[in-house]
Amino acid sequence: MEHSPGRLATTLIAISIMVVGCTSSPPDSPPSPQPTVNAAGAGADGAGDPYYPQDGNGGYDVTDYHVSISYDPAVGDLDGDTTVTANATSDLSKFNLDLIGFDISNVDVNDKPAQFSREGEHELSITPPEPLAKGTSFKARIRYKGKPALREDGQLGKNGWQKSRSGGAFVAGEPHSATFWFPANDHPRDKATFRLTARVPDGWSVVSNGREEPSTSADGWTTFRWVEETRLATYLTTIGIDKWIYERSTLPDGTPVVTAYAPGVENKKQLEARLPEILEFLGSKFGPYPQKVAGGIYLNEDIGFSLETQGRPIYARWTNLETVVHENAHQWFGDSVSVDSWADICLNECFASYSQWLWTEAKERQNLDQRYRTAIDRVKGRDTFWGNKLYGMGKGNEFHGVYDKGVLAMHALRRQIGEDAFNRVLKEWPAAHKDANASWKQFEDFVQNIAGQDLRGFYDAWFHGDKIPADQYLYPGSLRG
Predict the structure, then answer these.
(1) Domain 244-335 of CATH type 1.10.260.40
(2) What pTM was estimated for this model as a whole?
């Protein structure tokens, strides 16, 4: 994710270091402890994230979402029919999904009617007609209708289902966006494949994640189909309904590219034309592109952020070249390797922000050591800048330091461990955790092992601390002097 320049104008004036951004455990490491079931075989109503304890749910693992909707922009009502395919990880007499708003007409589990109730802000509690045995696969089908919700988030601005100036609609938000339009196990730990079937009146069109399949028309409506075969976190799903201008191509390796431009932003075509160059550069740093598709969704909206929706980032009207670099770096850091808990957000944003520095170093021959020293000189006495922890920042503070302090921390880490070790980290970390989840603690251990150094002091100073680091950590390696 990358913030709009205006949203972080104060920070930019203070440090002038960047166009400031936004964004299942691997087999060799245990997952974070999380609740699975409550009493009497009821799945837990949260995944166990301390920042958002009721996000997600326990007792099952989703393998696929098939979301079918009908939406008429002139009316604003959404008719939804979503099938969630999952594996029971415990014996379940009851389980929950997350869904905000809507009137629910029917819930079926394995093609049989199920009882359901709404609890709290977003819990949909489902009692299957027969208990679900641990290890079995099941399908939950939910049919629902209503006007999708929109919420104001203190960090990012508007999240959820938003209407566009053309009269269409789009979805974007972090950490929450999916449950504004379909029921889900809404936490990054439970990644799943995603299919969308979207029916809109003729003249409107739909863009989403994944591979584009043929559309069909009947009775004044057109149905669009998109299939994302790479597992994704729920907040990385999206839908855009507009009168899109599409561009279709392929990357040199044959990866299909679909980019959609809303009316009024056709000038962004020049920017998106550099996508093959951007992905080639990022691949040289991070390893092979980890997604099966590429492209972008260019909105004619001044929302407060752009977002790394998987395989096809969604861009605000203010997007520039570094934004496109940032959001595509997330295809490795955040999308392929997803956070285990929201406290781990530096794994997404610190890397994506530093990708902008790597880009200017390579393409503009910028001296990053000098850029770093200049930035440090500007923020040395600013306690509010250093007070933003990069790990353990607390709920509601996830995006407060990762774009500015985070990028400085990544450059300091590079100089602390040396060029060879840092380049290994950039490639080996996303390869080791591809299509999985990882925690900040795992990252610290991973880097320390590659570097062959005791980095605990460095980590405490830069990532766990809320004060300016001591000079030995502030000016490591070539930054000394």
Answers:
(1) no
(2) 0.93
